[in-house]
Specification:
- By secondary structure, the protein is an alpha+beta fold.
- It has helices at residues 43-58, 62-66, and strands at residues 23-27, 36-39, 68-76, 83-88.
- It has a four-stranded antiparallel β-sheet.
- The N and C termini lie far apart (39 Å).
- The protein binds zinc ion.
């Protein structure tokens, strides 16, 4: 059995009842303007998650390469109340040593 929710893809603790976070629609107007459904705790997290998911799905990391997005639109699912967010994206260098001898 997968421990990831089939709806929101959140990792579920086996001992707890899972409730999906709220549903949002997110759009990058510079990038076609379509709306993508995102599950997140709040609107700013939805904007971040949108960029993250797009970077991972495309394997192109457009947002990280551009340092983020100037304007990401977020609205609660089924609502026309749009909020605008600027998203900063950066990759974090990570180093690890493994003893080989
Ligand atoms: Zn869920």
């Amino acid at each position: 059995m997968s421990h990831y929710c089939k709806t929101c893809d959140t990792y579920m603790l086996p001992s707890r009842n899972h409730v999906c976070p709220p549903k949002w629609e997110v759009s990058d107007p510079e990038y076609g303007g379509g709306w993508t459904t995102i599950y997140a705790l709040n609107a700013s997290q939805a904007a971040e998650e949108f960029c993250k998911q797009d970077d991972v799905a495309s394997a192109d990391y457009t947002y990280v390469r551009n340092g983020g997005a100037d304007k990401i639109l977020v609205r609660p699912f089924g609502s026309e109340e749009i909020e605008e967010f600027q998203v900063c994206a950066e990759s974090v260098p990570e180093y690890s040593a493994r003893r080989i001898q």
